[in-house]
Amino acid sequence: MALSPLVLPGDPIPPGALPTSSNPSIPLKLGPGLRHIPPDRIVPVVAGELCIDHKKNAVWVETNGGRYIPTAGDLILATVHHSTSDSFSCSISPHTPFASLPHLAFAGVTRKTRPQLNPGSLVYARIALANKHMDPEIECVNPATGKSDGMGELKGGMLFDVSLGMSRRLMMPNPSAQGSMVILDEIAEKVPFEMAVGRNGRVWVDAEGVAKTLVVGRAIQETDEGNLGVDEQRKVAKRLLRDL
Amino acid sequence: MPREPELSLNERSFVLQALQENIRIDGRSFDAFRGLELNFGDEYGVADVKLGKTRVIARISAEVTRPFPDRLFDGIFTITTELSPIASPAFEVGRQTDQEVILSRILEKAIRRSSALDTESLCIIAGQKCWNIRADVHLLDYDGGLTDASCIAVIAALQHFRRPDVSVEGENVTIHAMEERVPVPLSLLHHPICVTFSFFLGGGIVLVDATLQEEMLRNGELTIALNRHGEICQIAKLGGVAVEALTFLNCTNIALVKAQEISRFISKKLEEDLKEKNPSRLLVELSAENER
C-alpha cells in the first residue's frame, strides 16, 4: 500500500494527487473532509490522510476523530429508547437526535407480528434517511430484498466504544490487509467470536463466556487507543490470550 | 439535543455477569484505582489530575478582602465546581444538577469543614483584611470517579499554591510581589483524600473507583474522606442499598490504604515539580517559613 499524503486544512491539493480514472465518463467524487471552491480548487477542511480510489474516481480525507454524523447507508448500533405507536425511538449517540425505527422495518414482519423491543434493546440497523434538520430514520431490513442481511436485535454480548476511525477500519472488506488490523485474526485462531461493527463508534462482541468476550473487546480498544502497529498488535493478542 | 449516555440491556447484564465472575470490564481488581496522573501548571496552584479517562483541573487563587463580620480572625476559603458540557453531553451550562451540588457539598465537607486549610493563618489584620482563597474545580473529561479525582486535584493544588508574602506595619499592609519576596505556601493542617466505593447486587460486591459505566449500574455508593493518618473527616452514604457494618469497616480499611498511597503519590509529584522549577533549591533556602 503506497503511503497516502497527509493534508492540513487549507492546503492546496496538487492536481497530480487527484485520482486519474480510465473511464472519463465517471465524474470526480469528493468525500468527507474536502470542499470544492469553484471553479477548480479543491481544499481539505480537516487534517488527515488523503485517500484516493482510482476505480471509483473518488477522493476523501481519512481522519480519526470527531462525533458521528448520521449518513444514509451507514450500518450502526443503536439503543432503543422508547416505543411510539408505529416506531421505536433509538439513540445512535448521545449527541444525535433520536432516530426512528418503524415497527415494520424488520424482516418478515406484518402489522400483526410486530417486534416487541424493550427500552435498552440493542439493534443493528442501517440508516435509511439522514437529512439536515431532520431526525434520522433507520431500518433493520433490506428494502430491495426484504431480508434482514444480519440486521435486527442483538442479544447477549457486550458493547465496546471505539473511535470512529477504528470502526471504519473494522468495516473494511479485508481489515487485516487494508487496515493493518491483524489482532482479530490472531485472536480468532484461539477464540471463536461474533461481532457487529457500527459506524457510530460502537462494536458489539459476543463470544463464549465473559472472559473471552472481554479479550476481543480489549484487543480492539487497546489497538485503537495505542494506535498499535502490526507487531504490537500481535504482542497484545499473545498477552491477552495467555491471560485467558 | 445532548443527553446522558444510556446503557443498553446487553451492557447491563454483561457488566453484572462479569462482576459475579469477579471480572471488571477494564481488567482491574475490585479494590484498584485506575492509573493516576498528576501534573502541575507553570503557575502556582494549578493541578491537572487524570484518573483513567476522567480529567479534572483545579486552580487556586488568592485575593485580599474584608473578613466575614462573624469571623474576624479567619480568612475565607471557598471551593467552586463547574461541570461543563465539554466533559460529557449530560452536563448543561448554567443549570446546576444534583450531581454538581453533591460534588461541591462533599468537597466542602471533606476539605473545608475538616479544616484542612488553616483559615486563621489567612488573617492579615483582624476584622479588616484577610486572604480569600478560592479553589476552582473544572471537569474536562468524565468517566466516573468525579469526587475522588476532584478531591485529589484540590488537595494537590492547595499544596502547590504559593501566596504573595505580606508585611504589616501598624495599619499599613504591604503585599510583596512574587519577585520581591519568596511567596508563602498555605498552611495545611492535613491532607484529606476521598475514596468512593460502589455497591452492586444488593451490596454483595464492592468496587473502588468505578468507571461511568459501573456508576450507572451501582445500587449504592459510599464516599469516605480521610487523611493518611487514618483520621476520617466524612462518610457520605447518600441513599442506595443498605450495607452491613462489617463491609463498612472493611471499606474504611481499604480507604486508609488508598489514601496513604495517593498522599505519597502527591508528595512525590510535588517534590519532582519543585526540583524541576528551581533546580538550585534557591527558593527553599531563601524561605523563612518554618516547617510545621
Automatic annotation (TrEMBL), chain A:
Subcellular location, record wording: Cytoplasm; Nucleus, Nucleolus
Annotated K Homology domain residues: 157-208
GO CC terms: cytoplasmic exosome (RNase complex); nuclear exosome (RNase complex); nucleolus
Record-linked CDD domains: KH-I_Rrp40, S1_Rrp40
UniProt xrefs under PANTHER family: EXOSOME COMPLEX COMPONENT RRP40, PNAS-3 RELATED
A UniProt-annotated Pfam family: RRP40_S1
Similarity comment text for this entry: Belongs to the RRP40 family.
UniProt feature coiled coil, ranges: none
InterPro entries: Exosome_RNA_bind1/RRP40/RRP4, KH_dom_type_1, KH_dom_type_1_sf, NA-bd_OB-fold, RRP40_KH-I, Rrp40_N_euk, Rrp40_S1
SUPFAM superfamilies in the record: Eukaryotic type KH-domain (KH-domain type I), Nucleic acid-binding proteins
Major localisation: cytoplasm
Gene3D superfamilies tied to this protein: 2.40.50.100, K Homology domain, type 1, Nucleic acid-binding proteins
Annotated protein name in UniProt: Ribosomal RNA-processing protein 40
A single BP term in Gene Ontology: U4 snRNA 3'-end processing
Keywords, alphabetical: Cytoplasm, Exosome, Nucleus, RNA-binding, rRNA processing
Keyword Aminoacyl-tRNA synthetase: no
Residue ranges annotated for the Exosome complex exonuclease Rrp40 N-terminal domain, each copy included: 28-67
GO molecular function: RNA binding
Record keyword Acetylation present: no
Automatic annotation (TrEMBL), chain B:
Any single Pfam family the record assigns to this protein: RNase_PH_C
Molecular function GO labels: mRNA 3'-UTR AU-rich region binding
Boundaries of every Exoribonuclease phosphorolytic domain copy: 33-164, 192-256
SUPFAM superfamilies, sorted: Ribonuclease PH domain 2-like (SSF55666), Ribosomal protein S5 domain 2-like (SSF54211)
Cellular component per GO, a single term: nuclear exosome (RNase complex)
One GO BP annotation of this record: nuclear mRNA surveillance
Keywords per UniProt: Cytoplasm, Exosome, Nucleus, RNA-binding, rRNA processing
Cell compartments where the protein resides: Cytoplasm; Nucleus, Nucleolus
Source taxon at top rank: Eukaryota
Family per similarity comment: Belongs to the RNase PH family.
Protein's UniProt name: Exosome complex component RRP45
Organism: Glutinoglossum americanum
